[in-house]
Known about the structure:
Chain A is an alpha/beta fold. Classes of the chains: A alpha/beta, B mainly alpha.
Amino acid sequence: MPDDHALNSSVRSATVVTGGTYELPVYPFTEPAELRGERLRHPVVIVGAGLTGLTAACDCALRGIPAVVLDEDDTVGVRGAASRGICYAQKSLEIYKRLGILDRMLAKGIQWSVGRTFAGDDEVYSFDLKKMQTHSVSEQPPFINLQQFYLEWFLVERIYELGLVDLRWKNRLIEIAQSDDHVVLTVTTPSGPYTLEASWVIDCCGAHSVIRDKLGVQVTGSKIPDRWCISDVRFEREPPAERWTWIEAPFNENRAVWQHLMADRVWRLDYQMPADADPEAISRPEVVADRLRRQFGPDVKYELVWVGPYAYRSLCMDTFRVGRVLFAGDAAHVMSPFGARGGNSGIQDADNLVWKLALVLEGKAPERLLDSYAVERREAALDNIRITNRTTRFLSPPTAVEKRFRDAVISLAREFPFARGFVNTGRLSSPTRYRQSPIAAGEHAGVHVQNVALTLPNGARGDLVELLQWCDHAVLGFLYVDLDGYLARELEGLEQRYPVRFFCVQTEEGRTCTFPTVIDDEGKLTGQLHAAPGAVALVRPDLYLAGTLDEPSAADLERALRKLLAIE
Amino acid sequence: MKTTLQTQLKIGDPDGFYEKLLDAHRGLSDEQCAQFDARLILLLANQVGDDRVLAECIEAAARPFARAAR
């Protein structure tokens, strides 16, 4: 909505149109150089300007990769104002802090703390996140609610601001073929077709990827007989700003209903429908109105922003890398929406991939480093699919026995706090630990490192993400060792040969050190790194622990770095 | 892996417990019995509280049906 005055200011040549009751930017089609007969080889071509593609593109821009983005549409969101994802979890917020759009997300998005779960006419239980013990040490909140297209909008504007990546709107991929050292893509545009070349392609085309089909790549999936219908509405008289979940809603024939708030005072109401419901019939305005009246009373006054029926599948590619094509987001994996794992995992795919791609393009790591992307993110996808399938099973019990156990859980949850742990209306996306990583370089490898507060080398209060920005997104080496002159010289040698920057970690100001010093006065960093005195911890640019080494020699550290970079 | 499943009797008054268990089912329909059992299983499981022991209990209980289920 136009009430965010900053939103339109930096859109280059974009006009704003009304789609539904949202106003969305429209980006201009510009004839690419290839249409003038040039044949160019681009380092990276990203196909699809959805959440995953734009996140990857923005990261490319920050790392100095002049990527090309192809998108068949000319706006944000899918088919105009179709709101897809609505919830962005902590790891995504940490990533967007690094990419430079977090402040806008926080300003526009909604944070809620009170959640209520209902079954039948009564509340089963409620919780207030503000009063619950949290294990989070991150500087970012646990999540925010925001319509996906806003996030895409912020990303597009950030990419234009960074100025390196070429966003090509109204460019639709129709053919793709690859050889040993490059990929050839054929694209149609309003000015006719053209061909371009890429060293690497990231497929962010979504669940119905053409690239997958063209390359004849296998996907394994299963259909889930569960159908839902979204109604995004604005009320004249708003419900309380809380997240309400019905496992069995009496006003929806005892099927599930979700009610939560997004930006612009738009509420997302998501209704579970009969598995065999006709998607067209359940989304007619009069049918939507009827559902709203049954839920909010006969006099409810509202403005319908968007209606979207959907079913879902779970689907995962057998491999996320096929030669020079890397698959990310929904193109690589699809799951049910519970726990917001689809969008958040696509964002993390991009975060995992782009630093590796940058090192490969700079010649600092061999191409096989990209295999670690495929392994790690496939492990995460399977983890997410397993977790979302459990939620589906709770919300749509497929047999009488499973329904009976759910009834037992609900009845116990009314009385006993322990049983609330079994109530599974979605488990919010959290970073997967990479246990199968081929680039594990020490103890605790593959554990996510939260964005903790620190005192930066310049003495300012900051956090881990700011430290990454400060040293140009290198691998971070945190030193808990006593440095003698010999070791210091060896480590400086490593900094020259590998993309790593070392930091001394102190708990209070005082001693001087050869390397820039960070002060971990609350011990949050040290705790997450599992670092004892004498240790060195290597943290990857996507804020995962590459490994913690106990009293390593310079040679041990060099071996760890070479493992991390897939050099050997 | 060494089993952690308790295979020796730990309950002080087994006859008393067994009687209470049966009495609790008395007068319930088959469906109600099944609902009662589901509640009881979840309550007991939380008293056990050990993921590995619970997994072994499920496995042990399923043993007679293992062939039929495949």
